[in-house]
Amino acid sequence: MGKLLAVALVGIAAALVGERLLALRRRLNASREVDPVELPNCRLVKGIERGSEDIDILPNGLAFISSGLKYPGMHNFAPDKPGEIFLMDLIEENPRAVELRISRGFDLASFSPHGISTYIGEDDSVYLFVVNHPHQKSTVEVFKFSEDDNSLVHLKTVRHDLLSSVNDIVAVGPDSFYATNDHYFSDFILMFLEMFLGLTWSNVVYYSPKEVKEVAAGFYSANGINISPDRKYIYVADILDHSVHVMEKHANWNLTHVKRLQLDTLLDNLFVDPYTGDIWTGCHPNGMKLIYYSPENLPASEVLRIQNILSEKPTVTRVYAENGSVLQGSSVAAVYEGKLLIGTVFHRALYCNL
Ligand SMILES: *[C@@H]1O[C@H](CO)[C@@H](O)[C@H](O)[C@H]1NC(C)=O
User: Fold this and answer.
1) Which ligand 1 atom is nearest residue 36's CA?
2) 229, 275, 341, 349: which could join 52 in a potential S-S bond, CB 3.0 to 4.6 Å?
3) Is 23 within a domain?
4) Is position 329 within any domain?
5) What EC number(s) does the entry state (predicted)?
6) Percent of the residues in the chain that have a pLDDT greater than 70, as a whole number
């Protein structure tokens, strides 16, 4: 009888693990292959070879690019090199990526930049908010951009218990922002377990020096976050749910759910075109290939444009898709006056004419 019970228990455990494994493969889109969508006029950006995870563009065409992310379990072509922020002037005919100097007093050696967001202050000062993972922790670094000498002056480091596993941010003031935590846990093993079990414990947090609070919860893995041009709505990508959530922002900074748009790809960062309000995203068609990096089975790239997300039938266009032979693991797509800049988690960056 004892043996029968043991066999039964092992059988049940195996069935549960098998079921969770299948669910995880679904969330990672593990069997999807990408149908190419070509853009005729693209070139790789010189000097960017180990990631361009997130991009934000100022109204004057200056694009900030975060590079050199170290993220647990994620591939990295140069794990010993610290991260950096590049600048590209998209007004120029043939823009180059220039590394921004960072002011003294900031620990460059442990710099591991992730999501970024710009904010223009009342006196036209430009602030750059950067999610950082020094020593595998999460902080948000606030810099002031100095255009005269292409440098970033470090203003402060934000740390908070509610900012435990930060992926992306959107600045809403000179020292306030919304942030996504892509996992509940920050320990690598527990993070993996959380993903494996399919827990929906990931959230969105509002931060200001006066108040810090959870404003949305229940995501598999909240990733990219951004704001509509009229500043009424916040968009959140749930990468493991293949969806974009639209949330209404209230005067007290709370968010309420408006709608969810289901797609068939793992959405990473979100960029909002300030003129049209269109949402552009860098996506991972197959998350398994991204996590288990192999040169024989490269992670692909895919760019979507979502128009009229608030309408009953938003238009979703696959603008670019490629199997990884050119660009591996696209994580962001940002536009400026007919140009498209596509960034990746750990690979290169592609600049295209639309
Ligand atoms: C990727 O796409 C390119 C261009 O379409 C093609 O030449 C190449 O064989 C593809 N690679 C794989 C591994 O499918």
Assistant:
1) 5
2) 349
3) no
4) yes
5) 3.1.1.2
6) 100
Sheet holding 350-353, edge to edge: 42-44, 350-353, 339-344, 330-336
Write out the two tokens for 202: 């990931």
CA 298 / ligand 1 centre spacing (Å): 10
CATH number of the domain to which 163 belongs? 2.120.10.30
Q: Does position 1 have pLDDT exceeding 80, yes or no?
A: no
Tell the residue nearest (CA) to atom 6 of ligand 1.
325
Residue 2 falls inside a structural domain: no
The rounded distance, in Å, linking the Cα atoms of 29 and 271 is 23
Beta-bridged to residue 321, according to DSSP, are 37, 302
What pLDDT, in 10s, does the model give residues 202-260? 999 999 999 999 999 999 999 999 999 999 999 999 999 999 999 999 999 999 999 99
C-alpha to C-alpha distances, 309 to 169, 238, 277, 295, nearest whole angstrom: 20, 15, 9, 36
Output the pLDDT for position 186: 87
> What domain count does the chain have?
1
Atom 3 in ligand 1: residue holding the nearest Cα: 325
**Ligand 1 atom 8 nearest Cα:** 325
The values of phi and psi at residue 209, to 5°, are -60, -25
Q: Which residues line ligand 1 (CB under 6 A)?
A: 36, 323, 325
Residue 8 placed within a domain: no
User: 307 C-alpha vs ligand 1 centroid, how far in Å?
Assistant: 30
Distances (CA, A) of 231 to 28, 36, 116, 173: 32, 34, 18, 12
117-124 average pLDDT score: 96
Least confident of 78-82, 137-141, 296-300, 305-309: 78-82
- Nearest-atom number in ligand 1 for the CA of 297 is 13
Which protein residue's CA is at the shortest distance from atom 14 of ligand 1? 323
Domain encompassing residue 164: 32-353
Catalytic residues: 114
DSSP character at residue 37: B
The pLDDT value recorded for residue 90 is: 97
